[in-house]
Prior knowledge:
By secondary structure, the protein is mostly helical. It has helices at 22-36, 48-51, 58-74, 92-101, 106-110, 113-119, 128-142, 156-173, 219-227, 247-260, 264-271, 276-302, 305-334; strands spanning 9-14, 41-46, 83-86, 148-150, 182-184. It folds into 2 domains: 9-185 and 304-334, Rossmann fold, CATH 3.40.50; 209-300, Tyrosyl-Transfer RNA Synthetase (Orthogonal Bundle). Helix 9 packs antiparallel against helix 12 (276-302) and helix 10 (247-260) packs across helix 12.
Amino acid sequence: xxxxxxxxxxxxxIQPTNHLQLGNYLGAVKRFVEMQNSGIxxxxxxxxxxxxxxxxxxADLRVATRELAASYIASGLDPExxxxxxxxxxxxxTQLAWIFNCVARMGWLNRMTQFKDKAGKNRENASTGLxxxxxxxxxxxxxxxxxxxxxxxxxxxxLELTRDIAAKFNNDFGVDFFPITEPVIEGVATRVxxxxxxxxxxxxxxxxxxSRINMTDDADTIAKKIRKAKxxxxxxxxxxxxxxxxPEARNLVNIYAALAETTMESVLSDVGxxxxxxxxxxxxxxxxxxxxxxxxxxxxxxxxxxxxDRILGRGAERANAIAQPILEQTYDIVGMIRSx
Length: 340
Ligand code: AMP
Ligand code: TRP
């Protein structure tokens, strides 16, 4: 069979749980904006159905969904250029996920490290949604025939599963229907680490607020968190090899490079030899310069929740127009009778 060439389309999603932190911004949202401006069609989703795989207070979920929409827009996502919406408004995601529940194998899901991490010791008490979460993620992507998915390093395994599901579906039904999606895990900031422990990922769910910079933090808070960030007593090296075995130092240089849109090498050639007492204020100044306008714009947008809801509703209509025909074709391939 002739290989079908899929038109390039970008899809990605973030869960509306807690505030967005710097790792989400540098590892995901900032790159979403770059891809939007590269001229490819871009679809960005707030994955509220993924969020409820662990308990969410309904009122908090509503706020977090609008806040994530506000941070997408404040970071430069243009709802005219990109399709911006929340997952639960497009039913095709869950409908395709059911088909994928029947394609993916127990053994594949049993290997997912995020499930093991999130379920913790008490696996018997984890929701069944948490277990099949990667099938819904595959449906999110494939219901748009997305070819490229920008994410941080931690999502690599889920994207491999998405590729396995697409390949098994195509193979089982003898079609070349779903694209084999490419993960886009690149840039200096695919893994931003905690400010308190350079070996742990910066995360929305870390109990210590000092471990992360939230996109809602004001200028003083950002500066304070950087001033208090853990470091070692040595001066900065002038080359990247000098950061070996110094995870906290590496992390701060990495954050600087990502914010300044340059490489670690170029940062080190400027700051090599400086002590942290001198480098930290430079980093704080840069972080405030780049992040404070975003948090200000977010706060402004959050004053108008109806406007945010309207944008999400319009995005959902556009998303639906792409997803529904792909779902219909999938049903047809699987052998479901559709009245026409
Ligand atoms: P999550 O907050 O887990 O829903 O993640 C949303 C997106 O941000 C995903 O693409 C993650 O890979 C990315 N991300 C989350 N934390 C980090 C981090 N510390 N460094 C880089 N990317 C991250
Ligand atoms: N699982 C992703 C995370 O935890 C969120 C997500 C859901 C996603 N569906 C997606 C990311 C589709 C990219 C594409 O960060």
